[in-house]
Write a structure and sequence with these properties.
By secondary structure, the chain is an alpha+beta fold. It contains eleven helices and 21 strands. It has one domain. 26% of the residues lie in helices and 26% in strands.
């Protein structure tokens, strides 16, 4: 049963500050194409993600490859969207206009139909120094992404579409639960503050991996995955905010996609990080580490392989669905009130509908798992991907109860989410409802 938003009116209605930028539609006949660019630097670069604890160290050898991936989806009249993902910790807001312009010029797809998300690996390059805007790295990154966009559009092929999902226990967890080292003493706080007007009760991580497989005759299939967990295994969190590995990595995502592409043999994998702002890899818990005696250097391989091993059997049980219809897009610049109540902060939200079967939503910020689950539960589409840190970067926008947590002890990751958030209480719920509203408009 769909949840009912009983406490909040959307700020877009209340303030009249939300504007729809585009809605496009076309005819039947879905086609899909794939493009990929390897942007792994062959020179020393600064690390992103938990950089303070790594003291600005500069890695020399990548553990795996950093990739930017483009999936082009077009309908019978040529209306096309690019659903992109890149192994960056985040993509700066001021990078997005140039990226979209270059990709649009190369592919012919309108800029506001290009959606570029970061996988949020905490072991990618930092957009400073030799990787800042205007450097050779940046220029190569933009050119490579544009080339991948053109490849994806040139690769458009008729498809049969299969969808499904699989639950993966013991691989991700809301990090509030398992911090035992002085940050949170006990894990039952949600019983007193978790229940609220928005329907929160027990907040657990969304353990569902969503799968879309575009089957293409004579070409490798395109396999899209959407899952929620912070990619922090490669930076090796031994304590909250402490990292002791220094190499470049796409994290468990690389091992998962490499495993699937090797074992399946007939697919190209595009991995999209879901609503995982408050979700961490479960086995980084001290308790689990002690039970399994896992060593830090093996965490990334283990986590990626385990995830892939859950996905592999699910690939044999996907359901074929009808995706006839149009590819439609809606973009919204949503203006929220900042934490002081004195200013407005703008966020870009997007929704894409493929026929009446597949939906995508994108958010510029680190969406939390409960909001992602709300969107999926209330979406009218058969399957809906939630992409965060998409088309720019933004901070955490936590859920309602985080603002009211009674003991914001120093170092608590809940306090961290609330204290760095730029916007007022209720904004996350408002944004989630707005994305559901957009999906409903596209579905009609």
């Amino acid at each position: 049963m769909k949840k009912v938003l009983s406490l909040l009116l959307t700020l877009s209605i209340l303030l009249g500050v939300c504007s729809m930028l585009s809605v496009s539609a076309a005819d039947a006949g879905i086609k899909v194409g794939f493009g990929r660019h390897d942007f792994t630097p062959d020179y020393e670069v600064p690390l992103a993600g938990l950089t303070n604890s790594r003291n600005g160290s500069w890695p020399l050898t990548p553990e795996d490859r950093l990739l930017s991936t483009v999936v082009a989806i077009a309908d019978g009249s040529g209306s096309t969207v690019l659903i992109c993902t890149s192994d960056m910790t985040r993509i700066n807001n001021d990078w997005i206009p140039e990226l979209r312009a270059a990709m649009s010029k190369a592919s012919g797809v309108p800029e506001n139909s290009i959606h570029i998300s970061a996988t949020h690996t905490h072991s990618s390059v930092s957009a400073i120094g030799v990787c800042a805007k205007g450097t050779q790295f940046y220029n190569d990154y933009v050119a490579g992404f544009a080339k991948a966009a053109k490849e994806a559009v040139d690769d458009l092929s008729s498809v049969t579409v299969k969808v499904g999902s699989v639950d993966v226990p013991y691989l991700n967890n809301v990090r509030h639960y398992w911090r035992q080292n002085g940050h949170i003493n006990g894990n039952n706080f949600v019983t007193s503050v978790g229940a609220g007007a928005w329907g929160y009760s027990v907040i657990e991580a969304d353990r569902e991996v969503q799968i879309i497989r575009f089957v293409r005759e004579g070409k490798k299939d395109v396999l899209m995955l959407n899952w929620q967990a912070h990619p922090t295994t490669a930076s090796c969190l031994t304590d909250y905010g402490t990292a002791n590995k220094y190499s470049i990595s796409a994290d468990f995502i690389a091992y998962c996609r490499n495993y699937l592409e090797a074992k399946d043999g007939d697919c190209l994998v595009a991995y999209y990080s879901g609503a995982s702002g408050n979700v961490a890899p479960y086995h980084q818990s001290a308790t689990i580490r002690e039970l399994e005696q896992e060593n830090c250097p093996n965490d990334t391989t283990l986590h990626g392989a385990r995830l892939a091993q859950y996905i592999m059997p699910a690939l044999q049980n996907l359901k074929t669905i009808d995706v006839s219809g149009s590819v439609q897009s809606m973009q919204m610049i949503h203006k929220a009130i900042d934490g002081s109540g004195a200013a407005i902060v703008e966020y870009e939200l997007n929704a894409v509908g493929v026929g009446k079967s597949i939906g995508f939503v994108t958010a510029q910020y680190e969406m939390v798992t409960e909001h992602g689950m709300y969107i999926k539960e209330n979406s009218p589409f058969e399957i809906t991907f939630v992409l965060y840190l998409c088309n720019g970067r933004g901070g955490y926008i936590p859920s309602l109860f985080v603002y009211d947590y009674p003991a914001l002890i120093e170092g608590n990751p809940i306090a961290y989410e609330a204290t760095i958030c730029q916007v007022i209480k209720g904004t996350g719920e408002d944004f989630a409802q707005s994305m559901v509203n957009m999906l409903n408009v596209l579905y009609k």
